[in-house]
Amino acid sequence: HGLLAYDPGYRSTASCKSAITFVDGDAGILAYRGYPIEQLAEKSRFLEVAYLLMFGELPSAAEEATFREAVCQHNLLHEQVISFYRGFRRDAHPMAVMVAVVGALSAFYHDDMDIRDPEQRLNAAIRLVAKMPMIAAASYTYSIGRPLRYPRNEYDYAGNFMQMLFGMPNKDFVLDPVQARAMDRILILHADHEQNASTSTVRMAASSGANPFACIAAGIASLWGPAHGGANEEVVKMLIDIGSPENIPKAIARAKDKGDSFRLMGFGHRLYKNFDPRARVIQESAREVLAHLGLENDPLMAVALELEQIALRDEYFIERKLYPNVDFYSGILLRAMGIPTKMFTAVFAVARTVGWVSQWLELHNDPTHGIDRPRQLYVGPRLRDYPHR
Ligand code: CMC
């Protein structure tokens, strides 16, 4: 096969140069533009982090205000887009709806958009970040038959998302600052993670010069899978299945059994062979919110904590360096905040949109990057003649 290197899934091939996110899985380090994720989660707010990821530096107060204004200006959906929702069965999964609605936006921003123009690229990126909370929230409100809510610019990004998810037309919405802060942190922690499956999907789609809204829809599709963004949903289902601490050994035994496809959801990571730094932050947030809501004795949290302790002491998990990942606790936290399980990955998609558009901008800022074209190791039949029949 000549000069081809066989690297299934490009696990050891750098597909691009990037100055956005740094991960050292062995050391358990994650940094956006050089800033450790723990510091950003502690000191920053989501839109500031979004600016950092998209533009490369933390914004000044004036830059942040201008950025926020631009996001506020673009956070509504075209009223015609809203009719898309009505075409879905009401029990459609929010991620299915989001793939479709974000993809459909490409039809709204296509003819007059020239992605060779940096200003227009930036405009598309801001539109995507701005609209995603309403797109996600509407997929939820539609599924439960509640009237769709519009953005309100007196809230920050996370608070606005929450008021669109939970606000009712017949009473004032009261934002709980503790939960809003926790949501903001969840968004920060999930904003980017270098060349993961969904981001690589976005980059590959974008390498052909495709419409950015269509590229992000491709990213949402990839994120949906249970081995990627769908994991937090699977974690909660697993914890509910386990039910109480005495059933944990059985679950652990199943996870270790090679004849059984069951895995401990929320454990293990392709890169982190140490504690996922995001898991530590989110565990703390989960404890804070549970205490704030008087849910310290949440049975799911009890199972999660016990499961973590047992797995961390187990030879199988130690040998394979399987630690809890970000999804292990995000599921518990989101659930405590009243976010329905089927919306978990949609929340992740809202956050990751910032990463996707940052990577998309970076790709287009490099004029030397042509269309991606992976090769293959052909293992089919050798050339043969069509038979005479
Ligand atoms: N439970 C039990 N065994 C596991 C698990 C698990 N969660 N994860 C990995 N293993 C075992 C696996 O069976 C293999 O064992 P052996 O060497 O004996 O065959 C070994 O550990 C290495 O596994 P791998 O599949 O080669 O590891 P990977 O780096 O390819 O997979 C992973 C990473 C995240 C897909 C995997 O750990 C997994 O399926 N975890 C559960 C799903 C999950 O929590 N996903 C969220 C990932 S973080 C969020 C995101 O990035 O979207």
Automatic annotation (TrEMBL):
Database matches in InterPro entries: Citrate_synth-like_lrg_a-sub, Citrate_synth-like_sm_a-sub, Citrate_synthase, Citrate_synthase_bac-typ, Citrate_synthase_sf, Citrate_synthase_typ-I
Active-site residues, record numbering mapped to chain: 269, 327
Pathway where it operates: Carbohydrate metabolism; tricarboxylic acid cycle; isocitrate from oxaloacetate: step 1/2
Listed GO CC annotations: cytoplasm
Signal peptide range in chain numbering: none
Any one GO molecular function term: citrate synthase activity
GO biological process: tricarboxylic acid cycle
A Pfam family recorded for this sequence: Citrate_synt
Record key words, sorted: Acyltransferase, Transferase, Tricarboxylic acid cycle
Top-rank taxon, per record: Bacteria
Catalysed reactions, semicolon-separated: oxaloacetate + acetyl-CoA + H2O = citrate + CoA + H(+)
Family of the protein in this entry: Belongs to the citrate synthase family.
PANTHER family linked: CITRATE SYNTHASE
Stored NCBIfam families: cit_synth_I, PRK05614.1
Name of the molecule in the record: Citrate synthase
Organism: Acidiferrobacter thiooxydans
